[in-house]
Amino acid sequence: MNKAAHADMLIASAREMIPFLKEKGPQHDIDKRISNEVARKLRDNGFFRICQSRENGGFGLRPSVLWRVTREVARGDSASAWILSLAGLHPWVGGMFSPQAQDEVFKDGTDAVIIALTGNVGRGVDVQFDGSHFTLNGKWTYASGIDVADWAAVLVEAEVEGRKGRYLLLVPQSSFEIDDASWNVLGLRGTGSKDVYLKNEKVPVHRCISWDDLQQLKFPGSARNKDPMYQIPHTSLFVMSVAAAVAAVGHGMLDLYCDALQRRIPVGLNHAQLEDRFSMAELGKAASRLDMAFNQLMHDVDEMYDRAEAGYAFTIADRAKYRANAAVLSEVVMESVNIMVRNIGGSLLPNGPIERCFRDIHSMASHFLLQTNHAAELYGRALMGLELPPNARI
């Protein structure tokens, strides 16, 4: 099967899951995690193999395929879309580690659900290195999908051979103590992004890569994996995984909005909202903005992939542009959702699908990498050749 046909098959499989996900989604909010049943169906459909390298038994497809699949999943359940959009990308990260570590993560070519704990989410973390192992103690917050994960990539600071640095370590999910009572939030309740703890966890050095080397596309996994994804800047692709969830759930809200318009008679009017010209105009504008935002995402991620395949060296301005675009397109999606919700007024019922989707997309768009002014400032400074702030994530 060629790659295009394979992608179409995966997208069709996700579309077939929509009724099932609509049924299961509300319970995710109650349970504060996606169910094992939903996670298993996502895995059985091969969605976590999309960005898993062929060398490790995966499909080795473009990230844009993953996020087209995510858009269909989001039409059924926003929490599942969040987990898939982020964790579905992370087999790419797993492929950055040593071949020995990859053999553990993707044993006999199996898939792997890998979450990332990298955005300054450590609390009271202590790391010791004895030359062959790191010993980890501490707490990490926002562990999205930890209940259904196999591994977590944990970013820590440690002193190695007399020098302090940042390192990404692979830790099995079974090593974490999960605080099930910790996830009490306005939106994304169903993602289970809980607090987790490690106590005297020993991580062998072969499951470690330097964070600074990773940012320069230097990692031991390149000895095995040759896909163009491994030549794409880490943050540029990671920020798109967050924006992809926002863009996907925006289309889920569009479905809900159109369904509400089909049956709604607004308070104060004596005719169906479908007959209101201004409501139709607002619908058309919102749908157009959502389409443009998603297409911008697809353009950027495919452009990155094509450039990497051609051996292009990404500049600081390139990286800053991709981060700014991700933030701006997320803002466009959120504004479109706000317009739709405003125009159904009294239909915004407590604990309903529209209310849930509205809460979730606002929480997604508040991610630190999608803060528009900060991302746009980095891009503006890069365009003018000005120095970027220390440790700027691009």
TrEMBL record:
Residues 245-371 form the Acyl-CoA dehydrogenase C-terminal domain. Gene3D superfamilies: Acyl-CoA dehydrogenase/oxidase, N-terminal domain, Butyryl-CoA Dehydrogenase, subunit A, domain 2, Butyryl-CoA Dehydrogenase, subunit A, domain 3. InterPro entries: Acyl-CoA_dehydrogenase, Acyl-CoA_DH_C, Acyl-CoA_Oxase/DH_mid-dom_sf, AcylCoA_DH/ox_N_sf, AcylCoA_DH/oxidase_NM_dom_sf. The keyword Oxidoreductase applies. It comes from the Bacteria. The keyword Oxidoreductase applies. Keywords: Oxidoreductase. It holds the Pfam family Acyl-CoA_dh_2. This is Acyl-CoA dehydrogenase C-terminal domain-containing protein.
